[in-house]
């Protein structure tokens, strides 16, 4: 008993191949096995890079905390706006406008909301 799909599209090798080319591979959005394999491998590299970035952010937060504690212990304030302008400019110069937004998020992670 043929299914509705096979009765609408006779099961030839060419049809099977064409159907495979137009069917998304699960979770990748790719339409071919080659593209799906490339995406899966590249995503593993991105996950590893993200782990390293998160580790660097944690390291940055710890160094920033040392600075803030030293300044507060000495009688100063937690925040140093002129230094924050330098940090924002550094990221903007390297990454453009989204770099500024990224730096603002990093600063918030490191010294809390102001
Ligand atoms: O460089 C400093 O003085 C810091 O305190 C570090 C840091 C930062 O995380 O980059 C954090 C808070 C300050 O407002 C400025 C910069």
Automatic annotation (TrEMBL):
Start and end residues of each stretch annotated as Disordered: 1-33
Biological process annotations from GO: chorismate metabolic process
SUPFAM superfamilies: Chorismate mutase II
The organism's place on the tree of life at top rank: Bacteria
Residues spanning the signal sequence: none
Domain Chorismate mutase: 33-114
Molecular function (Gene Ontology), one example: chorismate mutase activity
PROSITE patterns hit by this protein: CHORISMATE_MUT_2 (PS51168)
Pfam family, one: CM_2
Comp. bias regions, Low complexity: 1-24
Protein name per Swiss-Prot or TrEMBL: Chorismate mutase
């Amino acid at each position: 008993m043929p299914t509705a799909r096979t009765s609408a599209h006779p099961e030839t090798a060419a049809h099977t191949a064409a159907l495979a080319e137009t069917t998304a591979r699960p979770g990748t959005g790719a339409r071919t096995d080659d593209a799906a394999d490339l995406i899966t491998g590249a995503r593993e590299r991105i996950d590893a890079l993200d782990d390293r970035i998160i580790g660097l952010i944690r390291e940055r937060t710890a160094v920033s905390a040392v600075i803030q504690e030293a300044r507060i212990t000495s009688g100063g304030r937690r925040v140093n706006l002129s230094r924050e302008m330098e940090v924002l400019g550094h990221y903007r110069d390297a990454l453009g406008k989204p770099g500024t937004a990224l730096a603002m998020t990093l600063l918030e992670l490191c010294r809390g909301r102001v």
